[in-house]
């Protein structure tokens, strides 16, 4: 009985070790390697052919050169900062759009809510890539949006949205909106309607009640939603690559360029590790927030 | 029901496995998209009984990353330009057994000679196609803005005054660091293959000076933008320029495109067919290369993909519209001014891509 | 005055304005109020006056409309027709946040993200009280409910009883004219509930406010109220003091709803002096002292309301008297509840009567036992007649 329970506890750790820790160690190892023109394109490669001495020599060849390079070249810092900026603005936009949606859903009649929830989740049933390509069709110069606006004689020249940072925001906000709406909806729906009545009873107007009761009580949802959008948005590659222009400098794209264009797996791995390190801060904050919230409920 | 599902899943897995593991009588080709007439594969399969699996990529980077990672499962690949040299030095290609490909005799010695910079003795590569990097433009829109006797040089882009006049009708360049920086170097009077740090940095600044006149930096959007008339000038490869002109002609939208090799000269580039060192179907790969080099097959393929063919004997059978087009087959005199790129060391290569990143993002 | 002293609380109850003498205009008046939800009528043409300083209970089973009455008063619902007056002013159209009426919600509805002090001061903050004054009032309220020192706690750190007191303090902080209490003690255990009842009465007395309580618990209503309105299906069945509701119910429904009761169908046969005579099951003759308002028509069918504790259970036949009723039966069941024992007695006619005797003796000395033949007797003035 005890053994089987221990095994059960061991399982998640085993999973984490096998599919996170081991790959991560490999990435760290590549980050400490030099890139070479060979297959695989980095050196040294660990091999047991030359015995322990060979292994030791391989270890000795590892260094932090790639990280030094990241620090020396300003473009990486710019890319990181720009990614944080883009992710932060996109998160804010997602919150501004997602909150009213979640609020309306939580206030909708009980028997509508399931349908509305389904509608929010529905886009996930199609491939992410296809949805982003659909946005290309909508946003491009001769795309659906511009054609409609021109036909309605609202604009004369097509709006240049495609290949701009605006398109990147549209893409991120669209793609991550459900991650914002779902936790917001969960916390808004949980809010006891009698609290609002109590506030009203004590002299509160509707707006004041929203500000003093609904909003603070939905903060856990706001925080959860923001993290769920912000964390993946920082490393986002596909959206800036497909919708963004050549001027959109984001760390995901920079990583891609290092890996594919420069074939520099070492630097690419170093970029990835720094990205992960940057993400650890908000992730830990998020975890702590969730834990605190749990305790307060319990 | 469950067992049925499992069976079909197993079958599916087996199919994927089969494609990657390629047993005898099979051949796996990894090529640029739209870069081989599918009818040729069908004919080859019918004639030899070899089962061909055909897979495509759309960037050299994708090909190299996949191949360098190892165990790709492919037999034949089509690397381009300096990428060929990189793959040779990485040791992922195998030497071609020339005794198995008698049709090598049909190759154009001049093109084969150019390739020797990367592959001395043509040991690893069978030359496939070749092209130039130049300027495609909308003749009507350029005449409107610059007059009929406008220069036919790189100044069209790199002279801020000239490209400034074109900014309103959209100037585009492809997202390709080596090609564009080399063009800038040529325009500045430098060796396009320079590894001099200052010259490369200066070339970056040279492009930076006209960065505001460039509406878009994109490879994918080039052909469409040119043929739709959305862009009036584009720095691109001769093959893409040809496709854009063809598209405009087909759409009959009044867009007339012309491709020029700028008078200062430009890069002549090429790609080659190669067999991977870890290929499982070496004999079949040789058989395919020999098949493809038959003059009639090469001509059929050239007519399909509209690129300059490296098969000299085939020229007679290629569509005269192509062979007489100086954008596809430059004159002897022009050929003299063309330079083939060289493989730079990693540091210089990185300098190129870094310079390019700065140009691209407007930093 | 001791906060939880039943004696002082009881005195609080003796004081309210007597409903029989409405010298002043009522504080609250329901005037032909009807409230419908779709096809469902929650309140039907209802009239009710509530005086200042009353502790008024709305009592009834769930769905009787008592909660709707409260929500109409608070302003969470609007009347369908009729009107509600507060101090002579029509409340129609005044939103909940503008009514000088506060409510203590069922299970309290405390704001979970605010401290006790913030909760209590919430209503004052909405009126933009000065920080100093607000602080003073909050302290005063904390003292009132004996929660000094709890100001900075969050609701989830409080016990059920403490939360109840915070809720009370919050709803009293604005010194409303009327305090509505929706099942205020429903979430507390029995002992705490009894203590808190006295606390509520004490607070009401001290602040001199009008309390209106909604409850389904008749004991609670009996204990705290100056008057009780018994409701059923959107109508008021009887509005009266607890004692009159208990002893002089207006209908068999009210009688049955409040406490245990024996309901006996009788037929009036005539008068004998100041006593009415009735026949039970066509046989047994009963004497009943009628109420002044009772109309005694011979031959009319009435229901006799007889509370179990008014009945004596004896083994021997009691002495005959013109004002004593007696019947004989067999003890079928005895249930012991500590202070009293309840006897279920099967009469020879087949009817089951519930009688209750205080346990003046130890159980071992009890005379009456299972299956004993016993006499049940009660005085003519110990029962009332209601319409059948």
Question: Could you explain the architecture of this structure?
Answer:
The complex is a heterotrimer of chains A (298), B (363) and C (388). With 298 residues, chain A is mainly α. Helices cover 77% and strands 1% of the residues of chain A. Chain A starts with a helix and ends with a helix. With 363 residues, chain B is α/β, with parallel strands linked by helices. In chain B, strands 1, 2, 3, 4, 5, 6, 7, 8, 9 and 10 form a ten-stranded mixed β-sheet that branches. With 388 residues, chain C is of the alpha+beta class. Chain C has helices spanning 6-14, 66-74, 116-126, 131-144, 160-172, 190-207, 218-224, 242-247, 252-257; strands at 28-37, 40-50, 55-59, 81-86, 89-90, 101-104, 178-182, 210-215, 227-232, 235-240, 262-272, 275-280, 284-288, 301-306, 312-314, 324-336, 340-347, 352-358, 373-379, 383-387. Chain C has a six-stranded mixed β-sheet with strand order 6-7-8-3-9-10, sandwiched between helices. In chain C, strands 13-12-11-14-20 form a five-stranded antiparallel β-sheet. Chain A binds chain B through residues 35, 37-41, 73, 75, 78, 141-142, 163, 245-249, 254, 257, 259-264, and chain B through 59, 61-62, 64-65, 67-70, 86, 89-92, 175, 177, 216-218, 221, 228, 230, 346, 349-350, 353-354, 357-358, 360-363.
How do you describe this structure in short?
The complex is a heterotrimer of chains A (298), B (363) and C (388). By secondary structure, chain A is mostly helical. Chain A is built from 13 helices and two strands.
Features:
A: 298 residues, mainly alpha, two-stranded antiparallel sheet, B: alpha/beta, ten-stranded mixed β-sheet, 10 strands, 47% helix, transport (chain B), Putrescine-binding periplasmic protein (chain B)
Principal-axes shape call of chain B: globular
Q: Which range best describes the helical content of chain B: under 10%, 10-25%, 25-40%, 40-55%, 55-70% or over 70%?
A: 40-55%
| Parts with pLDDT < 50 across at least 5 consecutive residues of chain C | 1-18
Question: Number of DSSP helices of chain B?
Answer: 17
What's the quaternary structure here? heterotrimer
Structural class of chain C: alpha+beta
Largest sheet of chain B: 10 strands, mixed
- Approximate strand percentage of chain C: 25-35%
Principal-axis shape of chain C: elongated
User: What's the SSE pattern of chain C?
Assistant: HEEEHEEEHHHEHEHEEHHEEEEEEEEEE
What do the pLDDT scores of chain B average to?
88
